[in-house]
C-alpha cells in the first residue's frame, strides 16, 4: 500500500550512513518516507548504494524512543541487553521532559560541583550534524569544564589523523574520491570500499575501465581486488614491512622526486637511512609478498603521472596505525604524488559526519578547526568567543575514559548518539565501566546497548527529522534537510543539547540551526566563507573556503603544506608487532569490520526492513580450509573466544579471509564481537587494535 502511494512532498537531503556523502531525495507522504532517490550531488552524481536507497524505514520503527525514560529505583545495571520493547518498562519508567532534564543535568552539575569537571566526560556522535557536534563539545568544555570529550573518530581514523597532522599539517584528505578518475595508478590499502564506501568504489571501477591501474593491498581479498591490476594479499599486521620495502625500491632505483623533496619537505635523509634495511628480499618472508612484485608495484606507483592512495581501517586500527599512515604519507612525499589532481592521500572517512565532527572540535585535544587546547593563543580566542575559561589540559580519549571510570576519576557521562557498549574494544569491560558510573545520560533514538545502562534516556531525532550540515570524506559541507517530524515526544538533538546546557548553568538560546552554523563560521577560519544562504542555494560547498565568494579547494597542498615553514615532514617507521599474537591457547586471528548491509553497531540498519532481511543473522567469515580443518560445516553455530570473552554465531565459508584469520562484523548485539577485541592502543592516535587479536574457535554453541 505504501509502495503504491504518491508522495505529498519531496525533500532534498544527504545519506545518513557513510562518508561518501551521497545526495538524495526523501519522498514523503503523511510524515512517512515512502522511498528514496539519488540526487545529482558532487560525490554521487545520482548514484546510491543499498544502504542509502533502502535503509530509511528505521526512522518509523516501533522501537523508537518516544518519551524520556528514567531508570527505576533499585534496578541493577546488569543483565543482558534486550531488543524486546515490552521489557523496557521493566527497567525504566516514563517521565516528563522537565523531570528527565532536571535529573539528567542536575546530577551531572552536582558531580561537577563536588569533584570538578575532570569527573565528567561526554561522547558526541559522528552521526550528528556539525552544529550538534559543535554545541556538544562547547557544552562539555564550558558547562562541564573539561576537555574529556570524544567520539568514534577515536575508533576509526585517529591514527591516520595523527600522522597526517604531524606530517602534512592537516588531518583531512588532499583530494576528493572522484579524483581517482584522473589518476593513472590507484592504490587501495586496508580498505573495502565496495562494502564500506560503495559509491566511492564505483568511481574506482569506472577509473579502471577507463585505463587506470588499480593496486589493492589487503590481507582480506575484497571484491574490489577482482578489478585490480595487482592484488597483494600481504600477511595481517605487516603493513610497515611491505610499505618500507616499497620505499626501499624507490630510493635504491632513484625513483624519488628530488625537486619535490628539496623544495617541499623536511626530514628525508632520516627516512632514506631508515628504509635502507628494508629490502624487498628481506621483507618478502615477513609480509608474504615476493620481492619482484614489491619492486613492480613500487615502480608503478612512483613513475606514473598521477598516483593516488586511498586507505581505511585496515591501516588505522592497529597499535602501529600511526606508523602505517606515516609510511603512506612518506610514499606520496618522496615521489611528489600529492598536490595535484589525480594524486594525493585519501583516508576514506567512515561515518557520514566523522570529518565534520572532528573539525567542530569533538575531540579531547583540539578546539574547533584543530586549534590545540594547550595552545594559549588558540584558547584565548575561544575563551573570548564563548565567554568562558577553558581547561588547558587535553582531555581523555574514548578508551582512556573507560579506564578512568575504573580508576574512580570519571563519575558521570553524557553520551549523545554513540554506542560504546557495542563499539568499544573489550566491550565487557566497557559495559562494566558504564554500569559503574554514578550517573549516565544517554540521548538516542533507540534503546541501544549503551542506553540500556543509563540512568536517564532522552529520546532524540533521527537523521530525516532535522536540518543541519554534514561534512563528507571529500571535505564537502552539505545540507541535510528535515523531511519528517520526530515521533511522540522525541525532540531534535540541538534542542536537547541546549536544554542540558541550561541545566548546567549555560544561558544558551540559539534559535534556528543556522545561528549555530554562523557562530561556527566566526570561530573556524576553514569554513569562514560558507554562508547558510549559499548552502541552501548550492547544497554543498567544499572547504577550505576562507572568504565569501571563494569557490573552495577540492585539491589542497598545491603550493604549500599547512605546517611550519610550509613544508611537509617525513617520519620514519619501524616494525612494531600486534599487541596480542596467536599462541597455543588462542591460535587464530580475529579481524573485525562491517558488512555492506549493516552500519556500525546495527542500531539503524538492523531496524531497516530490506537491509535486515538480506543479512538477518550474526555470521563469522571463515576460510573453507579452516572450516574443514575444524570439522565445521557452513551455517553451523561456532563459539569464538578470546582472553576477554566469547560469542556464538554462524560460520560462513569465505575464501577472501586468509587461512588462520576470521572476519566478524561488529553490528550484531546477539554476538557482540567487541566483547573479544583488544583494547591495546596506538600510542599516538589512541586507537584500539580492532584488526588483530588472538582467538580460539570451537564448533557448537547457541546463538
Ligand atoms: Fe549512503 Fe555511503 Fe551508500 Fe552513498 S555510498 S548511499 S553515502 S552509504
Automatic annotation (TrEMBL):
Domain 4Fe-4S Mo/W bis-MGD-type: start-end pairs: 8-63
EC number, UniProt record: 1.17.1.9
Swiss-Prot/TrEMBL cofactor(s): [2Fe-2S] cluster
EC primary class: oxidoreductase
Keywords: 4Fe-4S, Iron, Iron-sulfur, Metal-binding, Oxidoreductase, Repeat
Hydrolase in keyword set: no
GO molecular function: formate dehydrogenase (NAD+) activity
Signal peptide (from-to): none
Manganese keyword on record: no
Family: In the C-terminal section; belongs to the prokaryotic molybdopterin-containing oxidoreductase family.
Protein name: Formate dehydrogenase subunit alpha
Amino acid at each position: 500500500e505504501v509502495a503504491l502511494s504518491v508522495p505529498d512532498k519531496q525533500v532534498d537531503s544527504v545519506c545518513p550512513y557513510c562518508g561518501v556523502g551521497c545526495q538524495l531525495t526523501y519522498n514523503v507522504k503523511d510524515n512517512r518516507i515512502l522511498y528514496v532517490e539519488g540526487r545529482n550531488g558532487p560525490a554521487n552524481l545520482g548514484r546510491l548504494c543499498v544502504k542509502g536507497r533502502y535503509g530509511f524505514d528505521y526512522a518509523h520503527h516501533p522501537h523508537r524512543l518516544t518519551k524520556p525514560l528514567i531508570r527505576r529505583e533499585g534496578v541493577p545495571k546488569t543483565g543482558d541487553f534486550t531488543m524486546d520493547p515490552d521489557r523496557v518498562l521493566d527497567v525504566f519508567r516514563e517521565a516528563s521532559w522537565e523531570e528527565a532534564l532536571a535529573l539528567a543535568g542536575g546530577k551531572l552539575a552536582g558531580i561537577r560541583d563536588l569533584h570538578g569537571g575532570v569527573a565528567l566526560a561526554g561522547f558526541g556522535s559522528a552521526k550528528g550534524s556539525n552544529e550538534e557536534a559543535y554545541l556538544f563539545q562547547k557544552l562539555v568544555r564550558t558547562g562541564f569544564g573539561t576537555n574529556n570529550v570524544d567520539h568514534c573518530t577515536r575508533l576509526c581514523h585517529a591514527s591516520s589523523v595523527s600522522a597526517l597532522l604531524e606530517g602534512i599539517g592537516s588531518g583531512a584528505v588532499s583530494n576528493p574520491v572522484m579524483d581517482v578518475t584522473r589518476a593513472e595508478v590507484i592504490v587501495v590499502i586496508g580498505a573495502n570500499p565496495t562494502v564500506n564506501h560503495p559509491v566511492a568504489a564505483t568511481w574506482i571501477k569506472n577509473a579502471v575501465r577507463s585505463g587506470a591501474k588499480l593496486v589493492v593491498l589487503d590481507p582480506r581479498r575484497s571484491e574490489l581486488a577482482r578489478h585490480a591490476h595487482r592484488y597483494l594479499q600481504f600477511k595481517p599486521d605487516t603493513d610497515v614491512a611491505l610499505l618500507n620495502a616499497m620505499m626501499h625500491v624507490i630510493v635504491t632505483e632513484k625513483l624519488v622526486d628530488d625537486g619535490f623533496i628539496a623544495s617541499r619537505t623536511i626530514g628525508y635523509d632520516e627516512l632514506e637511512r631508515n628504509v635502507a634495511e628494508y629490502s624487498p628480499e628481506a621483507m618478502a618472508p615477513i609480509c608474504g609478498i615476493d620481492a619482484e612484485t614489491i619492486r613492480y608495484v613500487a615502480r608503478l606507483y612512483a613513475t606514473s603521472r598521477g598516483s593516488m592512495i586511498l586507505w581505511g581501517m585496515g591501516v588505522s586500527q592497529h597499535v602501529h596505525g600511526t606508523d602505517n599512515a606515516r609510511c603512506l604519507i612518506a610514499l606520496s612525499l618522496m615521489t611528489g604524488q600529492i598536490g595535484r589532481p589525480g594524486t594525493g592521500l585519501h583516508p576514506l572517512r567512515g561515518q557520514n559526519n566523522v570529518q565534520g565532527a572532528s573539525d567542530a572540535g569533538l575531540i579531547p585535544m583540539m578546539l574547533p578547526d584543530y586549534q590545540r587546547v594547550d595552545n594559549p593563543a588558540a584558547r584565548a580566542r575561544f575563551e573570548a568567543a564563548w565567554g568562558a575559561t577553558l581547561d588547558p589540559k587535553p582531555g581523555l580519549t574514548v578508551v582512556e575514559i573507560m579506564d578512568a571510570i575504573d580508576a574512580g576519576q570519571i563519575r558521570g557521562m553524557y553520551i549523545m548518539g554513540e554506542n560504546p557498549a557495542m563499539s568499544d574494544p573489550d566491550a565487557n569491560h566497557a559495559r562494566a565501566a558504564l554500569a559503574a558510573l554514578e550517573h549516565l545520560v544517554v540521548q538516542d533514538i533507540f534503546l541501544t546497548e549503551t542506553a540500556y545502562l543509563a540512568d536517564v534516556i532522552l529520546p532524540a531525532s533521527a537523521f530525516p527529522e532535522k536540518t543541519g550540515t554534514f561534512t563528507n570524506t571529500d571535505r564537502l559541507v552539505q545540507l541535510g534537510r528535515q523531511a519528517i517530524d520526530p515521533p511522540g515526544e522525541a525532540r531534535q538533538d540541538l534542542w536537547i543539547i541546549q536544554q542540558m546546557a541550561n541545566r548546567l548553568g549555560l544561558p544558551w538560546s540559539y534559535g534556528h540551526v543556522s545561528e549555530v552554523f554562523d557562530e561556527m563560521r566566526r570561530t573556524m577560519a576553514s569554513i569562514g566563507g560558507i554562508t547558510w544562504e549559499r548552502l541552501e542555494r548550492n547544497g554543498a560547498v567544499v572547504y577550505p573556503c576562507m572568504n565569501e565568494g571563494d569557490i573552495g579547494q577540492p585539491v589542497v597542498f598545491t603550493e604549500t603544506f599547512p605546517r611550519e615553514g610550509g613544508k611537509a615532514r617525513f617520519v620514519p617507521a619501524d616494525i612494531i608487532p600486534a599487541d596480542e599474537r596467536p599462541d597455543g591457547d588462542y591460535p587464530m586471528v580475529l579481524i573485525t569490520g562491517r558488512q555492506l548491509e549493516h552500519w556500525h553497531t546495527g542500531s539503524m540498519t538492523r531496524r531497516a526492513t530490506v537491509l535486515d532481511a538480506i543479512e538477518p543473522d550474526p555470521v563469522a567469515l571463515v576460510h573453507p580450509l579452516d572450516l574443514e580443518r575444524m570439522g565445521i560445516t557452513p551455517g553451523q553455530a561456532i563459539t569464538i573466544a578470546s582472553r576477554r570473552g566469547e560469542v556464538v554465531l554462524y560460520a560462513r565459508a569465505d575464501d577472501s579471509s586468509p587461512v588462520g584469520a576470521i572476519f566478524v562484523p561488529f553490528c550484531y548485539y546477539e554476538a557482540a564481537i567487541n566483547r573479544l577485541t583488544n583494547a591495546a592502543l596506538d600510542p599516538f592516535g589512541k586507537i584500539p587494535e580492532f584488526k588483530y587479536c588472538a582467538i580460539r574457535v570451537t564448533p557448537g554453541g547457541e546463538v
